[in-house]
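[DERIVE STRUCTURE TOKENS]
===
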Amino acid sequence: MDIRLGNLNKTIVNCKKCPRLVKFVQKVSTEKRKQNMNEEYWGKPVPGFGNLNSKLAIIGLAPAAHGGTRTGRAFTGDKSGDFLFKCLYEVGISNYPYSKNLNDNLNLKSTYITNILKCVPPEDKPLSNEISNCSNFFDEEILSLKKLKVIVTLGKVAFDNCIKLYKQKFNLKQKFIFKHGRSQLLPNGIIILSSYHPSPRNVNTKLISNKMMIDLFKKAKKLAKF
């Protein structure tokens, strides 16, 4: 891992700026989920993972209570992650069709995965000041990816908040529309590609399918040229 990214990740993991989130993460990690009762939870903010030469960034809103908060890696150890990594494997982005834990030897091709918020919020509903507190981390992650060409946002909330950060940074007046599979150009030349979130609810109601997600990441790879 690049030294700059390593230092940033250490700062993220040690962050305690949001008392409500710190308290909730501790509660989740202490009470645990029945099937994970014998596991030791990560129980801290969850940094992104990948490398600084990535051309593609995949952005979620926040780590799952018993996914990333448990395992210490975004989209790892929950059903949304299971669905996501099957699709990433199909298009040659991931070397495995799963993401289980920090020691599973997972590698990504030219891809960085992170969340806008590094801690899970109660009911998956962050407060505006919590997103604001985390915005510097997200901003620094994106700025560190010097070869970045495409951002895929998973879910409308992640999309809206990603756009919000860009609007603040560049004083944008342009209107951006959320639609699955739609690509739009950001002012720094990066393409933002919006996607429905691969949550169990969206998958079960067929709002998103395996084929839809695979097609979206094929498009992302083509746009990112890798």
